[in-house]
What we know:
This protein is of the alpha/beta class. The chain has helices at residues 7-16, 54-75, 80-98, 166-178, 209-219, 226-243, 259-270, 286-291, 312-317, 336-352, 372-386, 421-435, 441-452, 522-528, 530-538, 572-582, 587-604, 619-628, 644-648, 670-676, and strands at residues 110-116, 120-130, 133-142, 149-155, 181-185, 247-257, 276-280, 324-331, 359-367, 463-466, 478-487, 490-498, 513-517, 543-548, 610-615, 632-638, 683-685. It contains 20 helices and 17 strands.
Amino acid sequence: MSLSESPLSRRQWFQATGLSSLALGMSECVSLRAIGQEKRPVSPSTQLNRFPRMVQEFYVEQVRAAERICIETQSRLKTKADAEAYVRNVREKIARCFGPFPEKTPLNAKVTGTIDRDVYTIEKVIFESRPQFFVTANLYLPKGAKEPRPGVVGSCGHSTNGKAEAAYQSFCQGLARMGYVVLIFDPIGQGERLQYAHIEKATRPGIGVGEHLHAGNQQFLVGEFLGSWRAWDGIRALDYLLSRPEVDPKHVGITGNSGGGTMTTWLCGVESRWTMAAPGCFVTTFRRNLENELPADTEQCPPHCLALGLDHADFLAAMAPKPIIILAKEKDYFDARGAEEAYHRLKRLYGLLGAEENVKLHIGPTPHGYTQENREAMYQWFNRVTGVSDAKTEPKLTIEKDETLWCTPRGQVAELKSRTVFSFTREKSEVLTRKRGKLDGIGLKEAVVAALKLPKREGVPDYRILRPSSDRKYPKPHSTTYVLETEKGVGAVVYRLSEQQHLSRSPKDDKPAILYVSHHSADAELREEPLLTELVKAEPTATFYACDVRGVGESRPDTCGGSNQFLAEYGNDYFYAIHGIMLDRPYIGQKTFDVLRVLDWLADIGHREVHLVAKGWGAIPATFAAMLSDVVTRVTLKNALTSYAEIASAETYSWPLSSFVPDVLAAFDLPDCYRALGDKKFRQIEPWGANSKAG
C-alpha cells in the first residue's frame, strides 16, 4: 500500500519512522509557519537525521508478522497427532537453519591431568570436535559409583575464563556432589579457546562477544553459521560423555546460562539424545528481544529462523515431550514476559502430548546470572527426572583457581597448534573460489537477485516532499528533499540539488542525472566529499541527486543504546543486519532494493541516463543496482570493497555485517560484478580492502 492510498497508512508511517504528528503537514502542504520552522536555520555542522526509528519499526512489523504466523500455526493444534506433527515439523525447520553438520571424526580425547577432591574428581580433557580443532573440558566424576550415573553437559555463558567461571564451577560441583557425571567445555572464543590471542592487542577482537561476532560474521560469506559450530562442539561433548562407562545413557541432560542458555536451547533442537534440559537466562521470544532493542551474538541468531516461523520455544518443542525447565530471572535483560510466553506455548503443546507435567518455568528474583536459586531449581528438576538424589539445596562448594582447571600447559589451545575458526573459513573460501563457475550476463544477474532475496518491483514509489533545511553548504545553493517509500514502512531519502529554489514535486526532466549513494550520510558527504563537488563541475548540465538508503544518514538508527551505537560491533547497524539474516532478507539486499526503487523513480520523471556514483558502504548496493537497472549508463565507485573473498581470507577485517551477502562466495564475488559493469563506463577510485577504513 502506498502512502497516497489512505490517510491511515500515511499517519502510521510517519509515526513509525519517528516524525511527530505535526510533521504530517510536510506531506500535506502545511506551511512552514504552521509548524514553527520558518526562521530556524540549521547549522551545516548539524547532521540531519529525521527518521531515527524507521528501520527499527520496519523490522518490528516484520518480526511481529513472523510471530503471528507461528502463533496461528500453534493455535490450530487440537490433537496429540497434531502436536506430534508439529514437533516433527520444527525439527525439520531447525535442521534447515543449522545443517548440515559435518561427518563425525575421531575425538582423539586425552586426559591431561586429574584433580582429586573429597567426593569427586575433575579430569582435564581435550578432544577434537573437528580434526585439529581442540576443545578443552573438565569432567566431574563422583567417587564411589558402582553403577553408571546420570550425565550432564554444561554449556558456558559469556565468561572470559569459560568453564572456570565461579557460577559454572558451582553447578558442576553441585551436580557432582549429588551423583551426576558432568562435562563442561570451553566455548569458542572463551577460556582456553581464544581464536585471536596471537594478534596484536590493538586490533584483536574482544574475548567472548567480540570473537563470536568477528568469526561468526565472516563465516556467513562462506555459508557457515557460528551457532552450528558452537552446537557441534556440544554434540561432540555429548559423544565424549557417552563414551565414558561411568555415564548412564538413559539419563543425559544439558544446562547452561546466558550464552550457555542459548546453546542449551539450540542443542535441544538439533540433538535427540538428551533426556532432560535446563536452559537459563536466554529463553524469551525474538519479538521481545527486537522490541527491547537487545542485540545478540551471531550464534544467537539462526539464519532463516524467523522466515521459517521459528521462535525460542520451538527449539525446546523439538525435544517434546521430554522434561524441560526454563530458568529465567525477573530482573534480567532477557524479558521475563517472553519467558512466560514461551512457557505457555510449550505447556499447551506438552498438554496435547499428555505430558504437561514435563515442562516448568522458574523465574528467580534477581538479575541475570546462574545464581544459586536458579541452580537449585535445576538440581530439583534433574533429580525429579533421574531420582539420583533428593537434595533440594546446593551443597557446600569450593571454587577452584582458573589455572587449576586448565587442560593445556599455559591456558590456551593455540600452544597445541589448534586450528582456528578463521582457518576453516579461509580454507572454505579458497575451495569455493576454485569450484565456482564463471558467471556473467543474465546468469550473474539471476545469481545476484537470488542471493540478495530481492522482491519484485512494481509501479513507482510514492514519496513525500520535506521542507528545505537552509544553508547546508552543498555543491549547489538549493536542495529539495524527497522521501521515497521503497516498500511499506521504510524508505530512501533523496536530495535534489538545484540552482533555484524548488519546493514541489520533482519536475519532468529528460537530462542526464547523477545519483550519489552515500557511505554514511548524504547530507554530510555533500558538504565534505570532494568527489561530489568535482562531479557537479564536470557535468554541469546533469541533474544531481544524492541518496541515503535505509539505515544510514537521515534514517541512521538511534536504537540499542543510542545513535553512538551505530558503528559499535554490537550496535544497531549489526542489530538490523543480523535480523535480516534471520528473516532471510539480507540487509544489503534491502539497501540494494532502495537504490533500485530510486532509479525507478528517476526513470519515471524522465531521466533515461543515470551516472550512478557511490562511496564506501554505499558502493556495494550501488554495484548490484547498477547491474540490474537499464537506466544506469555510467558507474563511479569510490572506496568500494575489493572482494568478499579478501575478507574471508583475512584474519582481521573492518567491514560490517550489513555489507555482507550470506553464502555469496558459493555463487559469485564483487569482481564478477565489476567486470559486468565494464560496458557502463565503470570507474574505481581508491578501492578499500578487508582492513581499509570501512567504519
